[in-house]
Structure formats: C-alpha cells, structure tokens
Design a protein that fits this description.
Layout (H helix, E strand, L loop, with lengths): L7 H8 L21 H28 L2 E2 L7 E2 L3 H8 L4 H32 L4 H9 L6 H11 L6 H8 L14 H11 L2 H12 L3 H9 L4 H29 L3 H10 L9 H4 L10 H11 L3 H29 L1 H4 L1
Antiparallel strand pairs: 1-2
Length: about 325
C-alpha cells in the first residue's frame, strides 16, 4: 500500500493562518519627555500652599511634640516624655476625649439623619417649596457664637422662654446648660437647629436621583422602603460619605459652640482670658479635646505638650478616614468586583 504524503509547503498553507509580516523594530531613540512648564506654573501655587500651610506646620508640630517649649526659651528635646504624660498622668485629657467621642457618636449621626429626613420631606413638597427650604436653611447662616448665645438665653433655667412654656403646662424644666447631664443634649439641639448646610446638600442629591429608576422599581412592585433601600441610598452614597467625613472631622475639632456655651452659662462674657476656669463648665461636661489643647498651649504656654495633643488628634483623624474610605470602597461596585 502506497503511503500518502503531503508536501511541507501545502501543509503549512493549510494549518498556519495567514501571517502578516512583522514590523521591523524601530531603531530610533525614544523621544525625550517634554516638560510642560505651563502645567507646572499652574499647579505651583497650590503645591507651595500645601507645603507652607500644611507640610511645615505638621512637621513642626511633630518636632515640638518631643520638646519642652514655652515660646520664650528655645525648645528642649525631652523625647517621649510629653506622650508619656498624655497617656498616663494628664488628669483631664480622657474627660475631654470622652466628651469629644460623645459628640462624634451622638451629635454627628443625629444631625445627619435629621438633615436627611428634612431634605426628603422638602424634596416631596408640592407647595411653597422655596419658603420651606429658606426657613430650614436660614439658621445655618447665623454665626456660631450668636446662635450659642441665643440658645443659652432661650434655655436659661430661670428666665428662658423654654422653661417658662414647660412650667405653664406643668413640667419642671431642667437646668439645661447649667446641668452636667443636660449640657451636651442642649448642644445637640443647637446642632439640629443649624443643620441647614448639610440639609441643602442632601436636598440637591435627592433631587438629582433619576425619576425613571423610581418608576421602574414601582412597576416591579417595590414599596417605599424598598425604593429608599435600593434606589435612593445607592444614588446618594457619595454625598452621605462626604457629609459623614466632614461631620466627624468637625466633631473632632468641636470648640466654639462648647466654649461659648460654657462661658455664657457660667456668667463670663469672654472666652480668651481665664479660659482654664470657664472652659468645660459645668463640671467639665463641655470640655472637648481641642479646648484642652487650647488651654495647655495658649493658657499655660506648654506648646510642646499641646503639639503632642495635636499630633495624636491628627493620627486619630487619619486612621478614621482610612478605615472609612476602605469601608466605603468595599460597598462600591468597583470594590464588590
């Protein structure tokens, strides 16, 4: 039997795809990258501002936190002694930290939820929408000091109209800003009253949710709760994250409202002079972490120890932001994939 042979040339033409000739490697040298001086000139002011107003103060605070510094004599290197005193011997730092934690865990969520609910009601309003939006936003335009002073007088336990109204209906009003148990809830009411700045951001986000998504979910039989869960919240998640981050940072730096409330409720007209006596009134219930930093740095001129407090605050804020951003990324479509 004669074996069947196939010539090599025909076999190649049947099995191999038609290959295009490979391009010869370029022997030309890579083009040098051109420096865009216009772009560098435009970003230079921003970079310079970051270095001057953020980088240098941060590095200087870290350095001073390892020194004894009182603004008069040169800084003296003392190693970790400031941090050792902060964590083991400072009698008020943990009180201030717990008060700040209360504002983070209570004031920030309550303020955000109230602002979101108010924005939801205003987004569904059919009549006098401009009037209602203006009324709810106006308190945010009041300066913080003026709003605190007004609130302290409104909630004055002896002559304030709030307790007078409560008394007229047979209820004995509390001491509000003069009672350690009621001082922080009183500031919580103030925070709810001035939530207009966050409310207006939530309202813009809610009005930007596509209407066709609500219509499609309604055709699929989704109720109001399901529409909020699967349509509204996913669309406004970036805005919620922004409000949460800025709210927590503001709570970490909570100073003006608590300081003015302590000063006015204790009968003092000023905050700067004798701040160590009035801040935190009553009984340290309104003493926040930044107030204690202010007292040690500018009341007692312990700039080295105040720098250690500031560095610790920066580290806590940075850790919180990293954890929050990782948590948010896990719920995003990119993180889920």
């Amino acid at each position: 039997m004669t074996p069947i042979t196939i010539s090599e040339g025909r076999a190649d033409s049947r099995t191999r795809p038609s290959a295009r000739p490979e391009a010869a490697p370029s022997l030309a040298s890579p083009r040098p990258r051109r420096v865009n001086w216009a772009v560098l000139a435009m970003i230079a002011p921003a970079v310079l501002g970051i270095l001057v107003f953020f980088g240098y103060p941060l590095l200087a605070s870290v350095y001073y936190s390892f020194t004894r510094f009182d603004l008069v004599s040169p800084p003296e290197w003392i190693g970790l002694r400031n941090y050792e005193y902060l964590f083991t011997k400072d009698p008020m730092v943990w009180t201030a930290a717990l008060n700040t934690l209360w504002f983070i865990l209570i004031l920030t969520p309550v303020k955000l939820v109230t602002a979101l609910l108010t924005a939801g009601l205003l987004a569904r309003a059919k009549r006098a929408t401009g009037l209602w939006r203006t009324l709810f936003y106006l308190p945010a335009l009041v300066p913080p000091v003026a709003s605190v002073v007004a609130f302290v007088f409104l909630f004055n336990p002896g002559t304030g109209p709030v307790n007078l109204i409560l008394k007229s209906i047979g209820i004995q009003g509390p001491l509000w800003f003069n009672d350690p148990d009621w001082s922080k809830p009183s500031l919580l009411l103030l925070g709810i009253w001035v939530m207009g700045d966050i409310m207006i951001i939530f309202l813009a986000a809610l009005l930007d949710v596509p209407r066709d998504q609500y219509e499609a979910s309604a055709l699929d039989g989704a109720g109001a709760f399901a529409q909020v869960r699967y349509v509204t919240l996913p669309n406004i998640t970036p805005v919620l994250v922004f409000a949460l981050i800025t709210g927590v940072i503001a709570a970490l730096q909570y100073f003006t409202e608590a300081a003015v409330a302590s000063a006015v409720a204790s009968g003092k007209a000023t905050v700067g002079q004798g701040a160590g006596v009035t801040l935190g009134y009553p009984d340290g219930s309104l003493l926040t972490y930044t107030q204690w930093l202010y007292v040690r740095g500018f009341g007692q001129y312990q700039l080295g120890y105040a720098s250690a407090l500031a560095v610790l605050l920066f580290i806590v804020a940075a850790i919180f932001l990293v954890l929050l951003m990782r948590k948010v990324k896990a719920f995003s479509p990119e993180g889920a994939s």
